[in-house]
Specification:
This protein is of the alpha+beta class. The chain contains two helices and five strands; from the N terminus they run βαββββα. The chain starts with a strand and ends with a helix.
Amino acid sequence: KCLLWYKGDPDKDLLEISEEEQKEFWEIATNAKKALDKLSTPDKYNYLCAGNRTPHLHFYIIPRYKEKRVLGGIEFKDVDFGDFPKSSNEVDEGILFKIRDEIKNAF
């Protein structure tokens, strides 16, 4: 999953930020999705903007896979495909940084 974090007022939610901030936020989200498309060719995406545990505007882009995928030498299997994603893959920090850098390079 990819996490976008809003750096502005922590008390505002997605519909309370300014029109300009919304435009920038969606532009970043769109570019992040395009980067994920290049890296992992998911079958679909789920999007989540909740703020329950962390009361600050943040937005998840969650690639979903019908079949297992290999990314950065790690096999990902989406055992919850077709349902709300409940499980996660434990990934070495070095692999996470590699994936992060590939997303950054795609911008």
